[in-house]
Write a structure and sequence with these properties.
binds iron/sulfur cluster; six-stranded parallel sheet; alpha/beta; TIM Barrel; 347 residues; 13 helices; three-stranded parallel sheet
Length: 347
């Protein structure tokens, strides 16, 4: 295949072409791929980078994902739940720092039931002009509806593998079809949806990653989150090798080529395996960064993976470092909510 042709003269990509791009090994060609991804990003978003402030309010989880340090079987990790008051105080800090998207994130924790999550959404939206992203795992269809009515705008639910066999292995026999039904339902009732996977999960192939990208296209996601797998202690995958920075960058760049106008985060995981992970993510076409505002003493225990960057630092220090790092690359920070540009409104 001709690299120039494939980078510049295509609107739609086949599985074979995606695999070809993911397999690029020549550094000059990889640079061309990254350059093209940045051009496409800039054509939609200019130099603006969107920030999303994350509150990890509970690390209780009833699920068993083999790669995750929060899985229920991990009895070593100290569990916590932030109070509603602490969550709302943290939302205020995020808003006061100029961020216009608040991400409420937790394990699958039914203590935070329909009413309590609705109360949090309503309380935040009543006070601040922000978008709310929920990242609460796979919950009930009625709950999704209630939270949408309460004011939630987006839902982040990664599919982790478009290969049904791998999906069932990673998630202790859970079914990929079910996950896809949840994502489709969320989209249908008006959420902006985000999905994606981890690069370097055990037994994952390049063809699997191509299918992950194609599934994101089929689901018409508004944000595609692809970060590296990082093993977590006290999990079945604790001794597996971590994903690779360059491969993760290539995936992000290909996602930009294939999905074009979606939001793509330069993840904390990428920044955790590489000192310049955020910069490398932005140089591969990302346009979103999600600073973690979870306060001490909780933040050190939201350990989805080991050696997560910044867990012992002050969230405000990290936020200011992130801003400087973004600006040093010639980008500016968006003052808007950063809704999906696929739609005219967030519904
Ligand atoms: S990935 Fe999410 S659902 Fe799975 S164990 Fe971790 S927190 Fe729970």
């Amino acid at each position: 295949m001709n690299i120039k042709e494939i980078l510049y003269n295509k609107d739609s990509y086949s599985r074979e072409e995606i695999i070809f791009l993911l397999n690029l090994s020549d550094s000059v060609e990889i640079d061309k791929l990254f350059q093209r991804a940045k051009e496409i990003r800039d054509s939609y978003f200019g130099k603006e980078i969107h920030l999303r402030g994350v509150i990890e309010f509970s690390n209780y989880c009833t699920q068993h994902c083999l790669y995750c340090g929060l899985r229920e079987e991990n009895l070593i990790i100290p569990r916590y739940r932030m109070s509603a008051e602490e969550i709302l105080d943290t939302a205020k800090i995020i808003y006061n720092n100029g961020i216009r998207t608040i991400v409420l994130q937790s394990g699958e924790d039914s203590f935070f039931d329909t009413d309590l999550i609705s109360y949090l959404i309503y309380s935040i939206k009543r006070q601040y002009d922000v978008a709310i992203t929920l990242s609460l795992g796979q919950r009930g269809f009625d709950e999704y509806k209630t939270w949408k009515i309460a004011g939630a705008d987006r839902y982040l639910l990664k599919h982790e593998s478009a290969n049904p066999k791998l999906y069932s292995i990673y998630h202790k026999k859970a079914k990929l079809d079910e996950r896809i039904q949840h994502l489709k339902f969320l989209k249908r009732i008006g959420y902006q949806i985000a999905s994606g996977n981890m690069i370097g999960l055990p037994n994952q192939t390049v063809a699997d990653i191509a299918d992950d990208i194609l599934l994101c296209r089929e689901l018409d996601v508004d944000m595609a989150a692809f970060g590296p797998f990082i093993p977590s202690i006290n999990t079945p995958y604790q001794n597996m090798p971590a994903g690779d920075t360059l491969m993760t960058q290539k995936v992000m760049a290909v996602v930009r080529l294939v999905l074009k106008n979606v939001h793509i985060p330069a993840t904390t995981a990428l920044d955790s395996i590489d000192d310049f992970g955020r910069e490398k993510g932005l140089s591969a076409g990302a346009n979103v960064i999600m600073p973690n505002f979870t306060p001490a003493p909780y933040r050190e225990n939201y350990l989805i993976y080991t050696n997560k960057r910044g867990i012992n630092e002050d969230p405000l220090d990290i936020h200011s470092q992130i801003k400087s790092r973004i600006e040093a690359l010639g980008h500016n920070i968006s003052q808007s909510r950063g809704d999906s540009i696929k739609r005219s409104s967030s519904i």
